[in-house]
Every structure is written in C-alpha cells, then in structure tokens.
Amino acid sequence: MTGVGGRPEIIVEGSDSLNSGWKEYHFLYKPGNVSESPKFIIPHQPRLDWQLWFAALDDYRNNPWLMTFIYRLLTEEQEVLNLIDRKRLPFQKAPKYIRMQMYTYKYTQTGDSSKDYWQRTLKGEYMQAVSKESIKEHFKTVNVDVTKRKPIPATNALLQETLTTIREYVTKLKGTTFVLSSLVTVITLRQIM
After folding, report:
1. Are 9 and 123 in contact (CB under 8 A)?
2. H/E run at residue 66
3. Which of 59, 64, 126, 134 has the greatest number of CB atoms lying within 10 Å of its CB?
4. How much is the average pLDDT of 44-64?
C-alpha cells in the first residue's frame, strides 16, 4: 500500500543499557521477524498494528500517542501488553529503555533460497531511546500527567458485564480464528433462516 520501494515499519526495541542488549518487541499482526509469514487479518483490522504503520509514514512527534504507548510498555500496563505478542515478550520485567528503529520491508523473491518471507533494511532511528523518567519529564513540559488515568464510568452495568465477559473470551483466540468463526457463524445462521 505504500509503494514499490517497500513498506516502512517501526520496530520497537527495549534494553537495560543504552549501549547494548536491544531486543525487539513482537506484535500480533505487523511485520517484524523476517522469517514469519504475513498474517491473514481481513476483515479484522488490529488498531495498534495499523496505527504503527501510519506512524511510520510520519515523524513520531506528529503521533503523540506513541510516547504514551512507550510509557505504558515501560510501566508494564496489562491492557497495553495485551495488544502485543505476550508469549514472546523480550523481557521478564520492563526494560529501562525503549527506542524505535525504522526499517523498510520488502517481500523476498520467489525461488530465493532463503526461508525468509521478508527482507528488511535499517533506515535509521525513528525515535531515540527513552526511559520512564524522560517520558514523564516530556509530559510535564506539555502539562500532561501520564501517570494518572481517567477511567470512563460505566452507565450500563449489564452492558459492561457482557462486554467484559466477551472480551475475556475473545482475547483467548487469535484474531483470525475469531473473525473466521464469526463469519462461519453468520453464514450458517443465514442458511438456516
């Protein structure tokens, strides 16, 4: 979708040292590991993975949500960790630093002896390494308290309970499994009626 020259992708990395030990965070749907096949997601559109693709088309300063996302990774917020591949978290506990690197991804050629699906080329740093403290300082300068979250009050207890139950069930499934099973259910119900 972004042209013949390849697909820009942001790779999020963490480390306990600014000088070494950088490890990638893995996402559920967006390209990352070059040996993993592209994911089947249609008609499902994973928000975080999709927004990271859009962010790669612009400067991180024009995507202020990225700083909040990184802060939530650094503070191990469960709701945010649920949006990425929890089975392959690169750290037992949150790292001290997170940075973002910009790569260009292209499909490998058919017949290529490599078993990789992608070729990726490092284009450079997308966002320099930050820590929890540096992000807090950044948000202080723009008068935002990132440490406090404002929960949205529920106005319908039954609806809230129903949605919580559905979310707990659905998060145990892969996105494609959920979408395909929902599609099969709809088709089956249409045939019956």
Report:
1. no
2. helix 65-74
3. 126
4. 88
